[in-house]
Amino acid sequence: EVQLVQSGAEVKKPGESLKISCKGSGYRFTSYWIGWVRQMPGKGLEWMGIIYPGDSDTRYSPSFQGQVTISADKSISTAYLQWSSLKASDTGMYYCARKASGTYLDGFDLWGQGTMVNVSS
Amino acid sequence: QPVLTQSSSASASLGSSVKLTCTLSSGHSSYSIAWHQQQPGKAPRYLMRVEGGGSYNKGSGVPDRFSGSSSGADRYLTISNLQFEDEADYYCETWDTNTQEVFGGGTKLTVL
Questions:
Q1: Of A37, A95, A107, Cβ closest to residue B95
Q2: pLDDT band per the 50, 70, 90 thresholds, residue A29
Q3: pLDDT in tens, A50-62
Q4: How many CA atoms lie within 13 A of B32 on its CB side?
């Protein structure tokens, strides 16, 4: 089965670091771009950035550049989203999603189940 | 950069049809888009890609009741024979070389 499986929900305090994961299976992980999308409570979808696991080419939305780091470990078919110092405003649901083809100039055709991140003192 | 505009809400009766619209900003009327469905409390689900010429390609398992079309800068998602499980938020998405990725604000569909 082709799927993306994300790590579980997190509860963190402001200032803490965090790394969440997205594991792909059922397809050639290195051949498809993986993106990260934020959804704050009751709001719409916001694109954060994207990575090509084959060579770790990474692009960021200007809104998230410098705020998060996207990486991938192709040996275990897993992409990551990490924060070095969380803020309360980082609270939200985070989805990984796969681009439909080998280029980032395409839509997302596969979504992970989401990882809820709750940052509160 | 492209901007996608969607109505915030729509409603239609059980068993009827509804046509949701996603409008591309000026200068981007030829762009392809994708439609995604997000049922309450669930992750988004890819529905289809709609081309500027009006053709569309659906994702695996998407019911025949869902179809796509296009006219000028507008991209449409039509759902026929509405079911209660179609009550969801619907997002359009597009992409380009400079901005990489853009989502519309989403349309909340209510089935009456």
A1: A107
A2: very high
A3: 999 999 999 999 9
A4: 14
Residues in chain B: 112
pLDDT tier at B70, thresholds 50, 70, 90 = very high
| Distance in angstroms (rounded) separating the CA atoms of residues A70 and A91 | 18
User: Residue type for B55, please?
Assistant: S
Q: What is the pLDDT of residues A70-121, one digit of tens each?
A: 999 999 999 999 999 999 999 999 999 999 988 888 999 999 999 999 999 9
Q: Which of A59, A109, A114 sits opposite B43 (nearest CB)?
A: A114
**Token digits for A62?**
């200007």
Rounded distance, CA B109 to CA B4, Å? Answer: 17
* B58 touches A at CB < 8 Å: no
Q: Which of A35, A111, A112 sits opposite B101 (nearest CB)?
A: A35
Cβ distance A47 to B100 less than 8 Å, yes or no, reads: yes
Mean pLDDT of chain B: 96
Phi, psi of B86 (to 5 degrees): -80, -10
Q: Which two tokens stand for residue B26?
A: 């000026």
**Distance, CA of A98 to CA of A112 (rounded, Å):** 9
Q: Cα-flanking dihedrals φ and ψ of residue A50, to 5°?
A: -150, 150
Strands A115-119 and A10-12: parallel
Enumerate the residues of chain B whose CB falls inside 8 A of the CB of residue A59: 100
Token pair listed for A16: 């803490």
